[in-house]
Amino acid sequence: MDDLLSEFLTETAEGLGTLDLELVRLEQNPNDPGLLGNIFRIVHTIKGTCGFLSLPRLEAVAHAAENVLGKIRDGQLIVTPIAISLILSSLDRIKMLLATLEATEAEPDGNDADLIAQLNAFADGQLTDESPAAAPTVAEPEPEPEPEWEPEPEPTPVPVAKAAPVASTAVAKPKQTALAQPEPPAAAAPRAQADGDVKDSAVAASNIRVNVDLLENLMTMVSELVLTRNQLMQILRGQKDSEFGIALQRLSHVTSELQEGVMKTRMQPIGNAWAKLPRLIRDLGIELKKKIDLQMKGAETELDRQVMELIKDPLTHMVRNSADHGIETPIDRVMAGKPETGTVTLSAYHEGGHIIIEIGDDGKGLATELIKKKAIQNGLATEAELAQMSDQQIYQFIFKAGFSTAAAVTSVSGRGVGMDVVRTNIEKIGGTIELKSAPGKGSTFVIKIPLTLAIVSALIVECAGERFAIPQISVVELVRAAPGTETQIERLNGAPVLRLRNRLLPLVGLDELLKLRQSHDTSTECFIVVAQVGTYSFGIIVDRVFDTEEIVVKPVAPLLRDITMFSGNTILGDGAVIMILDPNGIAAATGEITVGADRATAEQAVTRGRQVDKTSLLLFKAGDDSPKAVPLALVARLEEIDRKEIEYSNGKPVVQYRGKLMPLVPIDPALRIGHEGRQPILVFSDKERSMGLLVDEIVDIVEDVLNVQLGSEQPGLIGSAVLAGKATDLVDTGFYLMQAYDDWFGSRSDGALDHVAKTLRVLLVDDSPFFRNLLTPLLTIAGYEVSAVDSADRALDLHEAGEDFDIIISDIEMPGMNGFEFASHVRSDSRWSNVPMVALSSHATPEDLDRGREVGFNDYIAKFDRDALLTSLTATLSLQREVAA
Amino acid sequence: MSIVPAGTQSRQVQALGDGQSHDYVSIFIAGQMFGIPVLQVQDVLGPQRITRIPLAPPEVAGSLNLRGRIVTAIDVRTRLKLPKNAEGKESMSVVVDQGGEQYSLLVDNVGEVLSLTSGTYERNPATLDSAWRDVSNGIHRLDGNLLIILDVARLLDFATSVDAA
Question: How high is the ipTM of this complex?
Answer without folding.
Answer: 0.81
